[in-house]
Automatic annotation (TrEMBL):
Name of the protein: Biotin transporter
Keywords: Cell membrane, Membrane, Transmembrane, Transmembrane helix, Transport
Chief location: membrane
Topological category with respect to the lipid bilayer: Multi-pass membrane protein
Family: Belongs to the BioY family.
Keyword Metal-binding: no
Keyword Cell division found: no
Higher taxonomy: Bacteria, Bacillati, Cyanobacteriota, Cyanophyceae, Pleurocapsales
Cellular compartment(s): Cell membrane
Pfam families tied to this protein: BioY (PF02632)
């Protein structure tokens, strides 16, 4: 009887240790994800010509028409899980609204009037969904790419809903969002950057796959 009690107590302690380590791991990835998102906001994503062309043509870069911000959001979900991903983006949005000019065009409470703000809010469910799917299966490149794609779709869904809402509620006409220019804004924020963001998904999937293999999870 005493042995069973001791064994159960030992098992309970091990479980508690695992939970504590997991919580610290999530907190660490949330902090890393926050920093990556902030710095990624101001770094333009680009690709270079193939390495085998460098000798003949030299190396040159081509912009992807987007920043590394969304890549940072999705990478946090793939590496830290749903809680770390969502927490990092909640802190990012709150800091941008209340304290630091860390959004693409500044910050502050007035930023809720920006057409792109819905996409920033979408980072929260996008990172959560990406992290939730990424940790449902064993670490595989295709599953990580699928989770990042789902997270990206969630971001665009929230952004589009916000754009449509602004176009209907801008009765004073001072938000620069109306039913007339809604198609142009959708093209600017969702359609035009989508090819570049798909490239970022590929890059994020490879990085997450390698790091999770190295870190053994």
């Amino acid at each position: 009887m005493n042995r069973r009690t001791h064994a159960r107590k030992h098992l309970f302690q091990n479980r508690e240790l695992i939970i504590n380590v997991s919580g610290l791991n999530e907190l660490l990835w949330a902090l890393i994800g926050l920093l990556l998102t902030i710095f990624g906001t101001f770094i333009e994503a680009f690709i270079t010509n193939p390495p085998w062309d460098w000798a003949d043509r030299g190396m040159f870069s081509q912009s992807l028409g987007t920043t590394c911000q969304i890549g940072a959001v999705l990478l946090t979900g793939c590496l830290g899980g749903k809680n770390a991903g969502a927490l990092s983006q909640i802190v990012y949005v709150v800091l941008g609204l209340l304290w630091l000019p860390i959004f693409g065009r500044g910050g502050g409470l007035e930023y809720v009037r920006e057409p792109s703000f819905g996409y920033l809010v979408g980072f929260i469910p996008g990172a959560w969904l990406c992290g939730a799917i990424a940790f449902r299966h064993r670490t595989k490149l295709e599953s990580l790419a699928g989770s990042a794609l789902c997270g990206l779709l969630a971001i665009h869904f929230c952004g589009l809903i916000y754009l449509v809402g602004l176009s209907f509620f801008d009765s004073a006409g001072d938000l620069f969002v109306s039913l007339e220019n809604l198609p142009q804004l959708i093209n600017r924020y969702s359609i035009a950057p989508l090819p570049g963001q798909m490239v970022l998904i590929c890059v994020v999937s490879v990085i997450a796959f390698v790091l999770r293999r190295v870190l053994f999870y």
